[in-house]
Design a protein that fits this description.
With 146 residues, the chain is an alpha/beta fold. It has one domain (7-137): Cytidine Deaminase, domain 2, CATH 3.40.140.10. It is 23% helix and 35% strand.
Length: 146
Amino acid sequence: MLILADMLNITQALVDRIVEHARKDHPDEACGVVAGPAGTGRPERFIPMLNAARSPTFYEFDSGDLLKLYREMDDRDEEPVVIYHSHTATEAYPSRTDISYANEPGAHYVLVSTADTDGLGDFQFRSYRIVDGVVTEEEVEVVEAY
């Protein structure tokens, strides 16, 4: 049985990088992964990915890039701790498509909304667990360091 923490602990530096990526790719959705040492649940290595769909309403990891990333994480004894993407026109809540593609039950799914900001103003930064189609929002604790 998979037991999950009900909170994402993440550094301000990683939050800043995720938000910067979302703003940079706006009006298209941005996406990426933050990997961490296997079994720790600690996000450490920021890995921005290309949205292969290049769409303002949908994101898709390039299958070749994703395979390369998983091989690299395996070689480094890492796992995807955070899988993130942005919403450019809606709130930071998983869409039906997001839920259907969520296949990492141990990961935190972070959504950043740049809706109504032109990618420059305020933003929402929220985290969820998505397991077997069930979405549970969790607290985000921003820490200075681990």
